[in-house]
Every structure is written in structure tokens, then in C-alpha cells.
Amino acid sequence: MFYFALAALAAHTFLVSIPARVFFIYAHQENNVSFENLNLHPAIIKAINELGYTQPTPIQQQAIPELIAGHDLMASAQTGTGKTAAFMLPALNRLATPAKIPGRGPRILVLTPTRELALQVSDATTKYGKYLSRVKVVSILGGMSYLLQNKLLSQHVDILVATPGRLIDHIQRGRIDFSRLEMLVLDEADRMLDMGFVQDVESIASFTPAHRQTLLFSATLDSTIDKIAARLLRSPKRIQVATQRAKLENIEQRLHYVDDLSHKNRLLEHLLRDQTLKQAIVFTATKRDADDLADDLAAQGHVVGALHGDMSQRERTRTLTKLRNGRLRILVATDVAARGIDVADITHVINFDLPKFAEDYVHRIGRTGRAGASGIAVSFASGKDSISLKRIERFTGQRITPSIIPGMEPKYKPRFGQNDEKSRRPPQVAHKRNRAWSPNERSPFNHTDTKKSQPARFGRSTPNDNTDNRKRSLGRSSQFNNTRVYAEPGN
Ligand code: AMP
């Protein structure tokens, strides 16, 4: 017996020392798997059939059996892969049997980085749990009334979907009883880390029972996520959804090289006049840019709204409802909107400014091409964006095709052949990368004519700009100066 225990211990030590990725199950679509074979409660199957889900997605095929078996789970899956149902269907399955411990506190807790995603998860949960009796779903989000939240938390809750900051407030005030908690889901864990929620998440977890089932979903699984998982999960099963490329297959990605802001504006105007564009999300780098651009477009007669983190929850919800109901044709948004928006009629995503992180590009463009439809993702890039473009292309494993609209060609042209990786090099820029640009310096564009070129002055702020000084160069103050480097495929 002693030798057996020793051997088991040695095997365990050996296994845990092997890099985690060895144990990833790669999720592929098996055509013969149906929701009926996944041991889900008939009331859940009825609801998903009604939603028109005919077959589980790869992440659902892999995750649901592991979760029903009670395992902890670590999965790399992005929005758009069906990950919400992958964790929520087994969560609801638990609720189909009565709680073992009496009380009113939540049995399932889902933490999400943003309010939008939390609302999306709550909506999906309500739909999936429609035919289960008395499943009470409560969302606790920042920016909403404490009074209402206190009331909701004083009543019976089954599923609590929350953003970490506000939830920790309620926990510290002793308003939540986690004694019944059976499952903790960390949705978009990488994003929660980026947003500085790691301590809150760990602290929330410390208030929940140690025997809970813990699930972690993240677009990327790197060593930081691994460390958190090691603290919060127990012998998790790991699933990698190998669909990053496939997922973008129905999205045509185009790239427009741009010279300056007015060039961007002209291209945007042209794209928005396209009759095939039903609804579009235009992404900007800053909240102020989103407001300014929305104002400009409204002045041009477009039916447009802005969405960003400085708006109250009520305004954000109102704008999203308008988008969903088709009462907004264009939404100008910051990355806060990149996750969670699921509107079938979004035919175009336009990256007016490229995202700060390659991963956000995938989230942004995933707002189009929903539910099997095709979509178009257009990105504007100037000379300074070459590194960012390379990162995006490495991350997605796809090249973004440069496009030209006749009459709107860029003055800046890649110096090398278009199929050459070096073509992503920026034009020669005579300044130090991290130095703030002064208006008296030469523009990074039009650099062939030094004497005539005027300093470029553009009306939009730089990504980190919170000041009133909005006259900055498009080509300077690189948003990548402070970029966190992701461990991307190929790095
Ligand atoms: P998610 O990744 O959870 O944001 O889901 C992305 C979209 O896929 C949502 O519109 C879901 O309603 C939809 N969806 C999830 N699972 C399935 C499925 N098995 N079949 C069809 N659509 C699904």
C-alpha cells in the first residue's frame, strides 16, 4: 500500500511538472454529437432546441461532459464559440436538482470583466433556463443603483452574474451568503486580469466554499492565467478551442492604409454610404474619440450612437437596445463594446483605430459574421501601425488584405511587395519612438517633401489621452509605447 502511494505521488509530481499545454484537449466539431447525448435535463434541451441550436459547438461538446462529471475546467475560448452555453447549460443542469444546503444565496456565480458581457450572460441564462422551474438570475454590476441591488441580494438567488468590483463591495458589506455556492465561473479571465481585477477575483473566490467547482474561460491561456488557475482550480481539465482561424472564416478582412485623420474620415464616409452595410460598429481608441466621431457622423446625417465606459449603465443599455432593435445603423464604440454584443445584422466592423491588443482585434471583428452570416471587417492603418498589424496577423494566423478605393489611395505605400512580410514596415520616421511629438516636427507622412510638409494636426486624441490637448499627430504617441506583449503563437 505504502509503495502504491509512493508511486502515485511520484506519478503526480511527474505529471504536474509537465507543461500544462501537453494536457490540452483540442476541441473539434464531431458531427454525431447532439445535445440529447450530453445528459442535459430535458427542460434545458427544450429551450436550446427552441433557440435553434441543432448541434453543440466544439467547446460545448468537450466542456459539457467534463462539467457534468464535476471537474474543474480551464478553457481557451473566445466570445462567438458558444462558450456561454458551454458553462451555463451544465450550471443550469445542477439547478435542476435541489440544493444540498438550505439558504437563499447563489448556487452559481459568474464573474465577467464588463457590464455588457454580464448582461449578455444573464440574457442567455434566462433563455437557456426558460423551462426550468424558478431559476432566479441576478446581475450585480457597477454603475447601477445599490438600493435595487441590496433588495435583489436580500431575496432568493440561484445564479449571480457580476462584475468583480461591485460584487466585492457587497461582499464586504456582508450582503451575500455564499454557503450554497456550487460553481464559480471566471469568464474572460484574461480580460479581468488586464482590467486589474485579479485581487478582487481571488478575494471573491476566498469567500466561496473550497469544494466548489471552478471554471476559467480565457481567450489566451498564458503563464499568468496558469498561476491564477493554480490558486483557484483543482486538477482542472483543459480545453483549447482550435477555431480561431475557422471562426474568422466568414469574415472578410480588409486593410486600408491611411495617411492622416482626414483620409480616415473620407474612407469612413465612403464605407458608410455602402448600401450593403446594414449595421456597423466603428471602433475608436478613446472614449472622447467615440463621442467626437459619433457627433461628426450624426452631423453628416447618419443614424449613429456612441458606446463607451464613461456612459452610465442606463445610457449604455439604451444604446445597445437601439442597436438590437435596428434603430441605430452605426455604433461608434471603444473596446468596452468589443465583447458581448451579439446583433445578427451587424454587417461591418470598422477599426477606425486599430486595437491596442491583438486579441481585441478578434473580439472586435467577431461582432460581425454572427450566427453563420458573413461579415466585413475593415481596418485603417497608418505607418505607425505596422507592428500592431504584424501582431494581429500573427495572432489570427491570417493576413489582412490591403484594399484600395479608387480616388482614395494612400500617399503612404508599403515599401516592399505586398506579399512580403517587410511590407508592414512603417515609412522612415525621423524621431525617437517614445518621445512625445511636437507640432513643429515633421509629419511622419509626406516625408518626401520636407520643406512643404506642414505639421499634421488632427482633431482626435491619442489612446491614452485624458487631457484637453486634443491636437495630436495620428502618427505619434504610439499606442504601443505601453503595450503589454502577449505570448502569441509564434513568439
Ligand atoms: P458565445 O460564444 O457564448 O457568445 O455565443 C455566440 C453565439 O453563438 C450566440 O449568439 C449564441 O446564441 C450562439 N450559439 C451558442 N451555442 C450555439 C449552438 N450550439 N448552435 C448555434 N448557435 C449557438
TrEMBL record:
Residues 64-239 form the Helicase ATP-binding domain. InterPro entries: DEAD/DEAH_box_helicase_dom (IPR011545), DEAD/DEAH_RhlB (IPR044742), DEAD_box_RNA_helicase (IPR050079), Helicase_ATP-bd (IPR014001), Helicase_C-like (IPR001650), P-loop_NTPase (IPR027417), RNA-helicase_DEAD-box_CS (IPR000629), RNA_helicase_DEAD_Q_motif (IPR014014). GO terms for biological process: response to temperature stimulus; ribosome assembly. Residues 33-61 form the DEAD-box RNA helicase Q domain. Keywords: ATP-binding, Cytoplasm, Helicase, Hydrolase, Nucleotide-binding. Residues 475-484 have a biased composition (Polar residues). Coiled coil: none annotated. One of its GO terms (cellular component) is cytosol. This is DEAD-box ATP-dependent RNA helicase RhpA. It comes from Nitrosomonas nitrosa. The lineage of its organism: Bacteria, Pseudomonadati, Pseudomonadota, Betaproteobacteria, Nitrosomonadales.
